[in-house]
Amino acid sequence: MDNFDVVIIGAGAAGLMCAIEAGKRGRKVLVIDHANKAGKKILMSGGGRCNFTNYSIEAENFISNNPHFCKSALSRFNQWHFLELINQYQISFHERAHGQLFCVHSAKDILAMLLSECNKNAVSIELNSPIKQINTEHERFIVQTPRQQLHCQSLVIATGGLSIPKMGATPFGYQVAEQFGIAIIPTRAGLVPFTWQDLDKIRFTDLSGIAVAAVVSNETISFEENLLFTHRGLSGPAILQISSYWNPGETIEINLLPDLDLFEVLLSIRREHSNSQVGTVLTSFLPKKLIRALCKNELLETPLQNCSDMQINQVVKQLQQWIIKPNATEGYRTAEVTVGGVSCDEISSKTLESTKVKGLYFVGEVLDVTGWLGGYNFQWAWSSGWCAGQFV
Hints:
This protein is of the alpha+beta class. Helix content is 31%, strand content 24%. It has helices at 13-24, 40-44, 69-76, 79-88, 108-120, 172-179, 198-204, 237-243, 262-271, 278-282, 288-294, 297-300, 309-320, 376-389, and strands at 2-9, 29-32, 51-54, 62-63, 93-95, 100-103, 124-126, 133-137, 140-144, 149-157, 184-190, 194-195, 211-217, 222-229, 233-235, 252-255, 322-324, 328-329, 337-342, 360-362, 370-371. Strands 1, 2, 7, 8, 9, 10 and 20 form a 7-stranded mixed beta sheet that branches. The protein has a 7-stranded antiparallel beta sheet with strand order 17-16-13-14-15-12-18. Strands 3-6-5 form a 3-stranded antiparallel beta sheet. A hairpin with a 4-residue loop joins strand 13 and strand 14. The two termini are 21 Å apart.
């Protein structure tokens, strides 16, 4: 039997950050994980460069049934605090679009920094250790693994969500919450590509590989980013962003020329008595294949000077108000995050401790807090892990 002050289940971003902070306070800390390597999701994220935070972090960049919950943690350990740590370790980084920060060299730099901090603060890490059972006795937790029985005062669940099961994702964190009577907000895949309906697949399959700037909207929110056609459906940053706000059966609206008043442009060209066919004019703005897939052929072959306002408007709607109903998402297999999770209504926003079970904490993606694409989910991991680490 081994005694610890804190046992953290999950050696990912949130778990390691929590361990570091608890270790700084002199707590005897063990991080345990069923995987064979710590920080697997850190290593594969951002194409191996890890989009570790964003210059602009606001509560509005997160989805939760309790939208105010994330504010406390994000304000107490923000992106600037994490950048201080990055700079201490002299990790080179650069900014991409929308304030996204990536490592110049490798995500390995981030993981090495976290493991170094764990080592510096006497944190023990045990891998290849699945959890068999969790029980309580005299206000302490008993964690059973195949090799040993662990006793601790504080138990932290940092096991992430269901996204990317090949990286070892499991529903374990939700099962622990349910075991202790803590509510779960229903989960679904987020930041994930869409798949086509059968007829759309036939219509658009030849567009695979085409990427264009677009505004993708639903009734509540819109995102202006690149959109990518795949052989299975739609992907790219704009689609990944809106997917977290999408439910089966809903439609999305796509504007493929977001920075253009296409109606006015086409009217202006018509006034010049252009003999050019509509399709020829449009190819100066969008790929020919894409135009032919979306617009009626007879209109495309009509000289612009012969088109009525109504016909021009029809073309504009097809390209700038394209309504599509996805069949589904690609699911957890390719999703970057899980939407939903442990209900924040039953967790303290200050300490990340369960309001029902003393000494039980939840951090990171296992909670019902989901960030946008762009470093927000990592910042939530750093912030929630840091805050819990002050109290465990």
